[in-house]
Amino acid sequence: METQSLIVFLVIGAIAGWIAGQIMKGRGFGLIGNIVVGIVGAFVAGWLLPMAGIAIGGGIIASIIDAVIGAVILLFIIGLIKKA
């Protein structure tokens, strides 16, 4: 992966983490924590959504939507683990 691609991936993950934190009120970890969750969520979405047969499309907006879905799933799972 080139440096420019990595930077774009991290920015998309950061945006997705912030959006997921807004969606999952009360389950977030603050701005920095949600950005990290968004980056990890982007990896989760990149792995999980194609396995589920879900393809949103191409481009930056589709990548952000994918990453938001992954980050929301990750925040939900982390919230369940924190409650236990």
Describe the fold and architecture:
This protein is mostly helical. Helices cover 80% and strands 0% of the residues. Helix 1 crosses helix 2 and helix 1 packs across helix 3. The protein is globular and about 40 Å long. It contains three helices and no strands. The chain has one domain.
* Approximate strand percentage: under 5%
Q: Span from first to last CA?
A: 38 Å
Apparent shape: globular
Main sheet: strands, sense, barrel: none
> Could you give the count of β-strands?
0
State the secondary-structure class: mainly alpha
Helix content: over 70%
* Number of alpha- plus pi-helical segments: 3
Rg (C-alpha, Å): 12 Å
What is the total domain count? 1
Please state the average pLDDT score: 83
Order of helices and strands: HHH
Low-confidence parts lasting 5 or more residues at pLDDT below 50? none
Write the layout of secondary structure elements.
Blueprint: H1 3-23, H2 30-51, H3 60-83
Brief summary of the model shown:
This protein is mostly helical and 84 residues long. Helices cover 80% and strands 0% of the residues.
Which features does this protein show?
mainly alpha
